[in-house]
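Supplementary Note 3. Input sequence used for the single-chain structure prediction.
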Amino acid sequence: MTPETIAILILLGSFLFMVFLRFPIAYAVALASIFTLLYQGLPLTTVAQHMVKGISSFSLMAVPFFITMGVLMGSGGISDKLISLADAFVGWMRGGMAMVNIVASYFFGGISGSAAADTASLGSILIPMMKEQGYDDDFATAVTITSSCEGLLVPPSHNMVIY
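The predicted structure, written as discrete structure tokens, is reproduced below.
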């Protein structure tokens, strides 16, 4: 067996063994990587160097700014105005509140570009509104979560900035 094959077996084997022992995934990944580095004779400082190199990207600075902007917009009342606008467009149709959820998420995604910010700001308003109108709890939650993911596709989302 080649040394690369043995290193892969150590990596996968130790990871699966730790998962079987119910280690948290983050610890299992970290320890499996350390075991593999020790086998290959590489210094452990390599891990720290690669971690710093991975996050020292200028375009990744946009991610926390977009999330902060989404939270500020949610607490500032823009979410209510976006929901009113979406309600004017599609709220009159059958299943209108679910469509309002989707359209409001589309608008909010175009502003913030963050699915987490979208879910946090619109979900706290739209899920109770959908429950009041007779929608199932699971359906309201599923529509909100699914529609918040479309915000990643609408420019100027942070994923579009990174790409």
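The mean pLDDT is 81. The radius of gyration is 22 Å.
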